[in-house]
Amino acid sequence: MAEGEEVPPLSSWEIDLAKALEEGGCDLETVRNIIQGRPLPDSLRAKVWKIALNVVGKGDSLASWDGCLDLPEQTLIHKDCQELIDQLARPEEEKSALLLDVESVVTFYCKSRNVKYSSSLSWTYLLQPLVHLQLPRCDLYNCFYAIMNKYIPRDCFLKGRPFHLFRLLLQYHEPELCSFLDTKKITPDSYTLNWLGSLFSCYCSYEVTQAIWDGYLQLADPFFIYFLMLIILVNAKEMILGQESNSKEEVIQFLERSPASLEAEDTEDLFSLAQYYCSRTPASFRKDNHSIFGSSLLGLKDDDSDLSQALCLAVSVSEILQANQQQGDGVRFFVVDCRPAEQYNAGHLSTAFHLDSDLMLQNPSEFAQSVKSLLEAQKQSIESGSIAGGEHLCFMGSGREEEDMYMNMVLAHFLQKNKEYVSIAKGGFMALQQHLADINVEGPENGYGHWIASTLGSKSSINSLAEVDSSNGSSEGKGVKSLVNKMTVALKTKSVNVKEKVISFIENTSAPVDRHVSSSDRLGKPYRGVKPVFSIGDEEEYDTDEIDSSSMSDDDRKEIVNIQTWINKPDIKHHFPCNEVKENGYMFSSHLLVTATHMYCLREIPSRKGLAYIQSRQALNSVVKITSKKKHPELITFKYGNSTPTGIEILAVERYLIPNAGDATKAIKQQIMKVLDALES
């Protein structure tokens, strides 16, 4: 703000925010609830960003450093930092001290992380919004380190993995635009390197960068940057496609500078559109690529896929099975099984449409007719509300590379037609078989037919299916001209008696279907005759559900909150001090907090009295079982998952040592029953 200009008075919510920040112990959720997406006042931005970056109370990392500015690249570092300082409207007497702080931050980061500095890293652009906050050197470094660690992807360099992933996202939502850029041989790294490396600070004005960072840091979702980048391209789509006669270099230059056209008032629409595209993207986009973000220690395991060679976005078989059970506007898949007919007939996903990929070369006219049937069946399934219906096409092969060559050609055919929402089932039918075997711990006969159908007259076990699939893999599908599976008929015949047919999920919404509540389906109702969503009893001698949900992420990435602030929240109905018990026997002082719909575990931080990590957050309607040990009744196990007519799929297991465990489990049970009653009504 210009000198002498009056500071506008704070509004009521800004006063509430200022008060919460002043009192200390304020966590990110509290901040978000007060701000509710509104523009941040300049006077409070530094405190909010520090909370969002989880650096409040962090020590001075540079305190023990000798301060030597002696890297081989020091001259370049000094030059880039000087250029940053020269752009600031600060008194000359302050600039020299500020230059030393910025140069020290960059130098110490290089030394401590063993990184060689280069101007292409965009670090000075990343520091620019932080420098405007006028932070002390220790906070400046801590904020910079937190952003680098959480929000700047690993391999953020030319031809790096993050840019191959962005191309797959662009292809999924905007295949025409992706095809145009591919034809020009323009790869995402050629124009988004500095977008990603500076979080748009390189090209956007300071006011726009502030607005983007305000929203992005509050979301605390590193992957959201991908959707912001996607929307920038979507908004410029017509102008990009209109540059067909321009050179590659001219198009790249236009693309690279496109964020510069953003204005501060555009950010609300930018985020709203990004949220929409995010909701229309398979969850596998994040889950299968989580190692892109975070410290290098989290990514020691080599990635099992080369994204630069990926034909399209891959979706896990577990997501395919779960997605079409959900209600609402989420991603729903129309699965296309591209294996030869004999493999398909031996066993297939009960909701899958069959498109024999061999026909593409053997009988092109019949293949073209099959594609028409496929698109018509997809349309009918969506209109009828079938559980098999979905706007998102997911192609499934056998999972054996040599056999899936024709399927890849079919995939390419749809992509060349600029068909949006095209994906491939990761690992193919083999992965599906393995996943179903893994989640049916009592054997394939108790639920396997729930997913797998056969047109040979009987349901098969996992072993026999695998044998048939394997033996048919070498027959090359000679003479096979099967076009579509029985699903198309079922879609047209609403009076199909499901009990007399091979088990199928192709159901018309005109016939009400009793469904069981799950954590992903809040509008569901219990199946009649199925056990309650959870039970309370003694724990069995054996336990195969050793899933530790709370160990999924490291402490550096967990949110830190004030324990007393959370206990005093008006929506907290019950609080139980306890110890979290890990599989290896380690115990951590913790607190279980129960709201009307969720149960939180806050794990105390020994070195920071009064603060805790949010170790887990579980929906009460996802509790499927609560058990206690006969010899140790205070050791309570919570199992979370989805309940189906054929069994329970366990998704997470947590154990706690709770004093007066009987009172705790009784209170939690009562709250669960309230949730279920509300869902049923």
List the helices and strands and how they pair.
Blueprint: H1 12-23, H2 28-35, H3 42-52, H4 74-86, H5 92-113, H6 123-131, H7 137-150, H8 161-173, H9 175-183, H10 189-198, H11 206-219, H12 224-235, H13 237-241, H14 248-257, H15 267-279, H16 284-287, E1 313-315, H17 317-323, E2 333-337, H18 341-346, E3 348-349, E4 353-354, H19 359-362, H20 364-384, E5 392-396, H21 405-416, E6 422-425, H22 428-439, E7 452-453, H23 462-472, H24 487-492, E8 536-538, E9 560-562, H25 563-567, E10 574-581, E11 587-594, E12 598-604, E13 611-619, E14 623-628, E15 635-644, E16 647-657, H26 661-680
Parallel strand pairs: 1-6, 2-4, 2-5, 5-6, 8-14
Antiparallel strand pairs: 3-7, 9-13, 10-11, 10-16, 11-12, 12-13, 14-15, 15-16
Helix pairs in contact: 1-2, 3-11, 4-5, 5-7, 8-9, 10-14, 12-15
Describe this structure in words.
The structure is a single chain. With 681 residues, this protein is α/β, with parallel strands linked by helices. Helices cover 42% and strands 13% of the residues. The protein has 26 helices and 16 strands. The strands form three sheets. A nine-stranded mixed sheet has the order 8-14-15-16-10-11-12-13-9. Helix 1 runs antiparallel to helix 2 (28-35), helix 5 (92-113) crosses helix 7 (137-150) and helix 8 crosses helix 9. The longest helix is centred in the first third of the chain and has 22 residues, at 92-113. It starts with 11 loop residues before the first helix and ends with a helix. The model is unreliable at 296-303, 441-449, 457-535 and 539-556 (pLDDT under 50).
